[in-house]
Amino acid sequence: MKKQGFVSPDEIRAQFSSAMSDMYKTEVPLYGTLLQLVADINDKAMAETPELVEQLRWTGEIERLSMERHGAIRVGTADELSTIRRLFAVMGMQPVGYYDLSSAGVPVHSTAFRAVHEDALQVSPFRVFTSLLRLELIDNLGLRELASRILANRDIFTARARELIAQFEREGGLNQQDADAFVKEALETFRWHTQATVTAEEYKRLHDQHRLIADVVAFKGPHINHLTPRTLDIDLIQASMPERGITPKAVVEGPPRRQCPILLRQTSFKALEEQVAFVGQHGALGSHTARFGEIEQRGAALTQKGRALYDALLAATRAELKEFPNEGNAQRYAQLLEKNFYDFPDGHDEMRRQGLAYFRFFVTERGIAARSDVVRPRDLDSLIDAGHVRFEPLVYEDFLPVSAAGIFQSNLGDNAQAHYGISSNQADFHAALGARVLDELQLYADTQRRSILECSATLDLPPLV
Ligand code: OOG
Ligand code: NI
């Protein structure tokens, strides 16, 4: 794992994610309360459902359950985005997927930086949903000019962080001492700043255009705006938040509750109003709302076919609801969602047979014992039927655009919905990023394939794919 005394990027990521969590707990104490609630409910779910524990053991999920986290940031310029890409690369994180949020009235497009190989994901699944503000969507030219000027004048990275990134690229790694320094310096980019870089009047102009624009432009850096632990029972979390003094958003985003969870379900607590100081003010006389806490429950990664079915059923549900999900229609929304999703098979076997999800395959004791038998099954389906191979779904490691828009909206307020004429522009995003985003479906297919090949090797059979 170690080359020339270099720390593996996976370890740097694990170290960074834990440092980030500590920083956020100090900055936003309510996040600590949320973590406690999640830990309590995960313990309860595991105590009540032994099969769940068994499944978590097979896939190794049990070891990474409590460190499962994602965070989100929003950057303002192409230069910031491409340097963030280089910074995340030090931690073995690459841009995966493209999310266009402008169709949902949020003037950003995004990617997720994350580890891509299953072994690396096992060490630390930490990922960061990263959005780039699309200044070209600001129609007021004077304001666009103001925002560009402010952004051009800031550097969101410390000089030492820049040096260490360059050193990593030049030498191919960092030793422990430099890795420690890197984690400390990188953390600075994500820190909260009470002092804004604009006057109260400028803040108001930016904010009146869109709350998100003020959030990106008015501060020294792209503060981490939420962190997200992983739960085994998101509905129970949603119901239990008020008892702990946490106000949840109106609905859980994503698919409905199922026997066999798919993709990603998310909920969050509403962003907090925090005191900030504007330029020219003495003391923190102003306020800004941006930071919140989120919870996620992850299920199976879907194939293109499964995803198309999911998108269609979600769209049908939203069409039937006729309005944006909110407090008033939350119950009806949950019912409609469940009704529409009857059409999505709720069993792993069926999902596999229909090619709806990706899986990981494991050789069982029986499979090993039968290795020297003259007559034994020799293709994947028969091996599964004979109990020589078992399978578990691959966990979805990415995000969902409709859900992400819901998370954004609940934290920006309903008045922040806007309509943009210009839509998706992945080419521009790639140009700003200085790289192409990876295709998440290809990554799941690769992992699935590797696990089948591993089974073939263990069973002394020719490749089963
Ligand atoms: C990101 C919102 C999206 C998710 O988990 O879908 C997101 C943001 O508010 O910056 O984090
Ligand atoms: Ni999130």
Fold topology:
Blueprint: H1 9-27, H2 29-48, H3 50-59, H4 61-64, E1 69-75, H5 78-90, E2 94-100, E3 108-114, H6 118-123, E4 127-133, H7 141-152, H8 159-171, H9 176-190, E5 195-199, H10 200-209, H11 211-217, E6 226-229, H12 234-240, E7 264-269, E8 273-279, E9 286-289, E10 293-298, H13 304-321, H14 330-340, H15 348-353, E11 359-363, H16 365-369, H17 380-385, E12 389-393, H18 401-412, H19 426-433, H20 440-458
Parallel strand pairs: 1-4, 5-8
Antiparallel strand pairs: 1-6, 2-3, 3-4, 7-10, 8-9, 11-12
The structure holds 2-oxoadipic acid and nickel (II) ion (NI).
Structural summary, described in words:
- The protein has 465 residues and is α+β, with helices and mostly antiparallel strands.
- The chain has a domain of 248 residues: Uncharacterised protein PF07063, DUF1338 (2,3-Dihydroxybiphenyl 1,2-Dioxygenase, domain 1, Roll).
- Helix content is 48%, strand content 15%.
- It has a five-stranded mixed beta sheet with strand order 2-3-4-1-6. Strands 5-8-9 form a three-stranded mixed beta sheet. It has a two-stranded antiparallel sheet with strand order 7-10.
- α5 crosses α8, α5 packs across α19 and α10 packs across α11.
- The longest helix is centred in the N-terminal third of the chain and has 20 residues.
- The radius of gyration is 23 Å and the shape is globular.
- 44% of the residues are buried.
- The mean pLDDT is 93.
- The chain binds 2-oxoadipic acid and nickel (II) ion (NI).
- 2-oxoadipic acid binds next to β1, β4 and α18.
